[in-house]
Design goal:
Layout: E1 7-8, E2 18-21, E3 25-26, H1 28-44, E4 47-51, E5 57-58, H2 60-75, E6 79-83, H3 87-95
Parallel strand pairs: 2-4, 3-5, 4-6
Antiparallel strand pairs: 1-2
Helix pairs in contact: 1-2
């Protein structure tokens, strides 16, 4: 069985962000699988990071879902950040006219 979501739950959950690894194929099924863990993470902390470097295929519903998660987080005083989004993910967002929701992203360097 393939895992679609990995979470990193830090000790101080309210201060440190929780990171969720996005799968290589971000389709509507992936969004459905990620929804519960995303909601759980946002209930535990104020910052959520989506690690998006591995995304190689993305569908329109996935971009819409990410925008929805980001907007809901802001409305609830929380933050959602993309970490190292793949060029495929960013291109899809821009192609859909939703690039404004992804103007800045956090880069982690190893």
């Amino acid at each position: 069985m393939r895992t679609l979501c990995r979470t990193n739950l830090p000790e101080n959950r309210h201060m440190n962000p929780i990171t969720i690894q996005l799968p290589d194929c971000m389709d509507i099924a992936a969004c459905a699988n990620l929804h519960k863990s995303t909601q759980d993470a946002l209930a535990l902390c104020h910052k959520l990071e989506f690690s998006a470097a591995e995304v190689s295929r993305v569908g329109t519903p996935s971009i819409q879902w990410l925008v929805s998660v980001m907007q809901n987080a802001v409305q609830n005083g929380k933050a959602v950040t993309l970490v190292n989004p793949s060029p495929v993910l960013l291109a899809a967002a821009h192609d859909l006219g939703l690039g404004a929701f992804f103007p800045e992203y956090k880069e982690h360097t190893a």
